[in-house]
Structure formats: C-alpha cells, structure tokens
Amino acid sequence: MTASTSKDIRQISKQDLLDYCSSQGLPSFRANQMWEWIWKKGVTRFDDMRNVPKDLRSKLSEDFHFQGVELDKVQKSMDGTIKSRLKLHDGHMIEAVLIPVPKDKRFTVCVSSQVGCSLSCSFCATGKMKRMRNLDPAEIYDQVVIVNKQCQEHFDANLTNIVFMGMGEPLLAYNNVLKGIEHITSEYGLHMSPRRITVSTVGIEKMIRKLADDGVRFNLALSLHAAIDEKRDQIMPINETNNLDALMLALKYFYNTTNNRISYEYIAFEGFNDGIEDARALYHLCRDFPVRINIIEYNPVEGVPYVKSPEDRIDAFARYLTDKGVMVTLRRSRGKDIDAACGQLANKG
Ligand code: SF4
C-alpha cells in the first residue's frame, strides 16, 4: 500500500493496534512493543523497531506509514531562545520555541496547535496568516520531542514546561490538543506532569466549560490583553461573541470544577490598555477565583500600529494590582531578534 492509502500509524489507538495484531494472528505483546517504539522511543521508521521481526516490519510498512515532522530551520537568539521551523508531511510549516532559563532550571517549549489562525487578533503576526488546518495529535507530540532533544543537546536538561502559546488557538483544535497532551503526559509517552502544561486561549466560553467538564488537569491561561469589553473588541474580534462577563463565568466554573491554575496574559500597549483605569478594570476580573497575571512586553509586528508601553507605566500598572494583593509577574520578552517572541510567530524564515 502507498502512503496515500495506508494509515498513519500514529493516528490509530492502542486498541486498533491490538486488533491489527490479532487479525494478523500475532500475540498481543507485539502491539505493546510497537506502541512503545512509536510513542516512548519516538521512532519514525518501521526498520528502527529492532525487536520486531523483519517480516513483520515489512508488513507494517505495507499497511501503515509515519507522518513525521521534520526540522526545517533553527534560529538562535542572543538571549538563548531557540526557534525551530518545522515542516509537516503536507509541506505546511509551523514554529516551536525553546525558552531556557538555566539559572532556574526552567526549560519551556512554546508549541503550536494550528497552521495559521482564523482569529485575527490585531497585534499578532500569526493572525495575519490564513488558518490552513489543525495539527494532529502526533504533530503536537513531535514538537515537544524535537525541542526536548534540542534542550538536551544545548542545556543537558529535559524540558520542564510546555505552553500552548504558539501558532493557532488550541481550543479550536480541541480534540487534537487533548489527545496530544494525553500522549505527552502518558506513561507510554513522555510522562510529563499535566501541572507543567499550560494551554492558552483567547477565550471561547463554551470550550472553557468543556475543559472543566472533561476534567483536564493542565493549567489554563487567558490571553486577556484588555479588561474593558470595548477595548478588547478592538484588538480581539472573538470578544464580540465571548465577552468578559461570559468568560469570567466560564473561568469561575473551570476553577470550581478542576481547581487548576488560571493565569491572564496581558500585553501592555502604550496609551491603549496600560492606564490606571485599565488596571482597575483588570482588578475587577481577579476577584472570583485565584489568578496570576503575566504582564508581557509588546514585540513589534510589521504593519501593527501599537507601541510597547514604557517601563514607568508598566510599573505603575503592576503596582496598582500588587498593592491590592494580586499576583503579578512582569515578563521580559524573549527571542525578539529572531521573531520568536509572543505574537511574532509567522514563518518568516
Ligand atoms: S493571538 Fe492567538 S488566537 Fe489571536 S490571532 Fe494570534 S495565534 Fe490566533
């Protein structure tokens, strides 16, 4: 069978593999062996499954194929951030970013969930690209495997954290993101703790409630960027149908149901959302559940009319909140020189 008619072996379940083995008259431990090669050892060629007999390997390559992800280009920032451009089986490109903080032994990968994005947030480079498709669970998994290898090579360490803040809106690729996270957290896969994973969304009320009902164990970040509806409507069109009241109720439900950590991402734009009235509005969104706020430095994106908020304004904004007991972190931007910072991912090459 050719790749176009055979199945991608990483799209099938363990049960499918067990059924396949039994249909071929093979013992079930063969399925276990293959499953381990596919996920734990991350092979992408049947010939690498060394304890699988040769004739079975060639039968497997007739019936299945691997839809792998290839490293296409790597760029290193002055600050140690590494951006990887990855080529998918159909030629589309995505990006994943390694953000190392060796002194804290913290190594974070920022992964993508879609090719492009349909949501057109006005400050974001990805939003200027058309959404082509969702990533499949194995493609999500591969980003983590590839960047984990880079982390081992450059820093002699494994990844400690995963954030879904790359290209795309994860909750619009819901099933694939959850399946990808299952591979990442499972014992048969990378066995990472879900507490080390943060999924970041622009805020889709219905899907936040679904996360809660599905009992997910990872953390949730809301890309907030404005705490007043009229302002948020201007920069994030999704807010017109998922306004702040609706989002707060959904987040409260998420917190009460799962007890998982919630954070807000807040990019500060000079004169737009960095005044004391904005901080006051933001404080009002911090009262119904515990939340941590990450204030992020804005990175220029071509053709976008916003300007980074000056340090004294950011400091005053943050102080207003911390004085009221809100947990605030100021995040310096990383990887700006290679367009790897927040909102800059756009396959510019
Ligand atoms: S910020 Fe996220 S949701 Fe908005 S356009 Fe960019 S990638 Fe899409």
Kindly describe this structure.
The chain is α/β, with parallel strands linked by helices and 349 residues long. It has two domains: 59 residues, DNA polymerase, domain 1, CATH 1.10.150.530; 267 residues, Aldolase class I (TIM Barrel, Alpha-Beta Barrel). Helix content is 33%, strand content 19%. It has ten helices and 14 strands. The strands form three sheets. It has a ten-stranded mixed β-sheet with strand order 3-4-5-6-9-10-11-12-13-14, covered by helices on one side. A two-stranded parallel ribbon has the order 1-2.
CATH fold topology of the largest domain: TIM Barrel
CATH-defined superfamily of the largest domain: Aldolase class I
- Return the average pLDDT rounded to an integer: 93
CATH architecture of the largest domain: Alpha-Beta Barrel
Provide the gyration radius in Å: 21 Å
Characterize the biggest β-sheet. 10 strands, mixed
Please write out the topology.
Elements: E1 7-8, H1 14-23, H2 28-38, H3 54-63, E2 64-65, E3 70-76, E4 82-87, E5 93-101, E6 106-110, E7 114-115, E8 133-134, H4 137-155, E9 161-164, H5 174-185, E10 197-201, H6 205-213, E11 219-223, H7 229-235, H8 244-258, E12 262-268, H9 276-284, E13 292-297, H10 311-323, E14 327-331
Parallel strand pairs: 1-2, 6-9, 9-10, 10-11, 11-12, 12-13, 13-14
Antiparallel strand pairs: 3-4, 4-5, 5-6, 7-8
Helix pairs in contact: 1-2, 4-5, 6-8, 9-10
The structure holds iron/sulfur cluster.
